[in-house]
Amino acid sequence: MLLTHPRRPLPHCITAHLLLMLVLLLTAASASAFNTGEHLTYDFSIDIPELNISGKIGSVDLFILERTNIASRIVYHACARITSIDIINSLYPFNSEYHSWFDAETGTPYRIECFVHQGKWTNHTLLTNLPAFATATSNTGIYYDRRNTFGKKMRYPKNSADIITALFTLRTRNRSIPYDFVWINYDRLHEVHFTFAASDAVRVKAFGRKPVPAVEISEKEYFGITAKLADERDAIPLTLTIPALKFAGFSLVAQARLVKYETGQ
């Protein structure tokens, strides 16, 4: 009962929210800040107070895979991978990859591709033919998945971003003002509103025992997500908490903490 949902598998909802914030917080502040091979690893845990259940259920890995060119523009190819640990694999495995090709200067996506495997649910989605919004006259793309095998034409606002590229802009923002954008979530669009605030220092395994000065970023209206990102170190995301999601009558809190960081080359 706990691992089911009337419309979508439970981990799909949780991992989508988790990935939104983590990968939002991944993207570097400028083209020169991106290093091919940059790799961040997070422990992904849940807490269900009513059942006295808590613990790690998987990992989230974020990569910068390559730097390439599309239409004479510098483009980065980034990947996020979410995997379950062995004991969860025997109950409800999840092993999904999310890819994005985005403009190094504007941060806007050219192509988004997802390979989803969660429980018995599998899907391959592709959003392609996205224009470079900075110069485009029409903000449209073609979306494909198992239900739209021939493609569905979709139109996007100028401030649209996918889950991997949105914080390319956010990490360069003036932290004294909110940041609003439209999240491209498969074939759906969500308006998202983030604000910054002061935060206490945070300890994470990736940086040892010494507390890391941090800034808090939160979204209270749609997801209820709170994250801590390093005030220095290129604003690396340190922790993420998704509070009290309601599923099957239970409250579920999901959290991710940075356990490994590689700068790349």
Biggest β-sheet, characterized? 15 strands, mixed
Question: Could you say which structural class the secondary elements and strand pairing correspond to?
Answer: mainly beta
Q: Round the Cα radius of gyration to an integer and report it.
A: 18 Å
- H/E element sequence: HEEEHEEEEEEHEEEEEE
Helix content: under 10%
Order of strands, main sheet, comes to: 8-7-6-5-4-3-2-1-15-14-13-12-11-10-9
Mean pLDDT: 80
Net shape? globular
- The N- and C-terminal alpha carbons lie at a distance of 46 Å
Count of domain modules:
1
How many helices? The count is 3
Give the strand tally: 15
Beta fraction? over 45%
Low-confidence stretches: 1-11, 26-32
